[in-house]
Amino acid sequence: MSNDIVTRMGDGERVQLSAEDIREDIRAGTADAAKRAGVPELTAEEQERLFDIVADPSRIVSVNPGEEVIVTDDGCTMSFYSGQDGGGVGVPLSRMQAVLTYERACGADTTSLGHSDYSYKPVKPIINFEANDYYNTSMMTTAPFFYGAQPNLGLYFQPDGPCPNAAELMPMGKIDEARRAQEEAAGHLTKDLVFVGRRLADVGLEGLNLDTSGSAGDADFMAALQAVAELKRKVPDLPILMGASGEFVLGMHGEVAYEGTRLAGLYPQDQVKVIETAGADIAGVAISTATTESLPYNLSRAVTFVKAASEASHIPVHANVGMGVCGIPMMEQPPIDSVTRVSKALVQLGKADGL
Amino acid sequence: MGMHIAHIMASCMGGIRTSGDLVAWMQMTRKMRIHEAKAYVAEKLDVGIIDLTDEEIMREIRKDLGIGTVTSIAGGPKGIRAKCKIAELLDINIRSVALFKSQMGFPGS
Predict the structure, then answer these.
(1) B93 and A237: CB-CB below 8 Å?
(2) pLDDT tens digits for range B63-78
(3) What is the 3 state secondary structure string of A81-130?
(4) Which residues of chain A fall short of a pLDDT of 70?
(5) Label partner for A127 (CA 20 to 30 A): which of A15, A18, A133, A284?
(6) What is the number of alpha carbons within 13 Å of residue A149 lying toward its C-beta?
(7) Which one of B5, B17, B27 makes the best mutation probe of the A interface by having the most chain A beta carbons within 10 Å?
(8) Domain A5-348 has CATH 3.20.20
(9) DSSP alpha helix (H) spans, chain A
């Protein structure tokens, strides 16, 4: 009988690895994260605890009683009624029914509402519809109720938006033009984020989630930071969760800064600092999952990054644990054995305040 | 969908089944880290940290305080009525509650 341990690859495939191989993957994963971000590797004791979590023979693992954290979401309630491309299970529920089901049947700590596109730009022309749905549902919910979407700077470039397409200009060597296009797009994005946030704030918005900030690079991240700061000036009591989109901010522009900090290349331990400076109440961090590496490798990397961010932050840090981030396999139906191992490790070793 | 439920089972405080919503409010409104938020809520409820995720204890507390229970008790406060009490209990500003009170003409709104 084999003594190999059943685990997963980053694409979800079930594999059997020896204890030695798992320990080696954990060592390699933390070393890679530490080298990239310039943060400490996990200690030998932490690596051994991570091994115990990965190698636990149970199908499902969990934190110990008393160690639980807050679980926020990025449009989870949409997964009740949406289809495959939204990770949805296609149950014919209204948005309010989905929110209340998530709150009451699933016992979620917080709930949320979002537009099907899950970007802020498409919300602008239908803001009154969203405000109505938000207000009506907020009268029914007991748990904190966010409105969430992605800043998504990409929607502001031609042909979808008004600005010259930076991704087309750069290969032509038109770097200055590409930078100007991103700056112009960022200005539009900030205005839209503030517009939507303020209009929802008028109907009693309990919390705003700027999810996956920086997905189009550093100008996207900057626009989100500026929107957070502006919203906090105009609506100081509005709680804001700002989540990042990757383990480092892509330098698509390369030179934009926020309050003196150049944003390109920021790793999670520095991302949380600028998010805090902007005035957000909760910071989200996202670490990439490599599909060709094992769960122990990916999870070890994620724990190393998240632990450094948690230690650097003065505000709550929530680790993004959707498909393909923070060690969760990159697939449509992440296996529950891997999901719960990621969950437990990020709380116990990554010291996350939430997920 | 199953992924969210797996996280809830593995690491989540349990929302209105226990006190997860209360601790979440403290992270959102006071930027409290998880241990500080739990300690604050535990003090307000006069229970231990370990009790915050104990359904057997928290159910009775929630029922007695009228801050919403996960099973639906006819006539029991839920939604905005429960949140009015939660804002008072935790001494925080919940924006939907502030709007609701202003519309109802409550004293102090």
Answers:
(1) yes
(2) 999 999 999 999 999 9
(3) HCCHHHCCCCCCCCHHHHHHHHHHCCCCCCEEECCCCCECHHHHHHHHHH
(4) 1-2
(5) A284
(6) 25
(7) B27
(8) yes
(9) 19-37, 44-55, 78-81, 95-104, 127-138, 166-169, 175-201, 218-234, 268-278, 295-312, 336-348
pTM over 0.95, yes/no: yes
Q: Do A336 and B100 touch (CB under 8 A)?
A: no
Token pair belonging to A279: 């005035």
pLDDT at residue B108 in the model? 57
Where do we find the tokens 């396999």? A329
- Using the Cα atoms of residue A345, residue A350, residue A353 and residue B4 in order, give the sign of their dihedral: negative
pLDDT on residue A75: 86
The interface predicted TM-score of the complex, written ipTM, equals 0.96
Degrees, nearest 5: CA angle B94-B55-B60: 75
Comparing alpha-carbon positions, the chain A residue that sits nearest to B77 is A142
Q: Percent of chain B scored above 90 by pLDDT?
A: 91
Residue with the two structure tokens 């979800």: A12
Which residue shows structure tokens 């600092």?
A273
Cα dihedral sign for A84, A86, A310, A289? positive
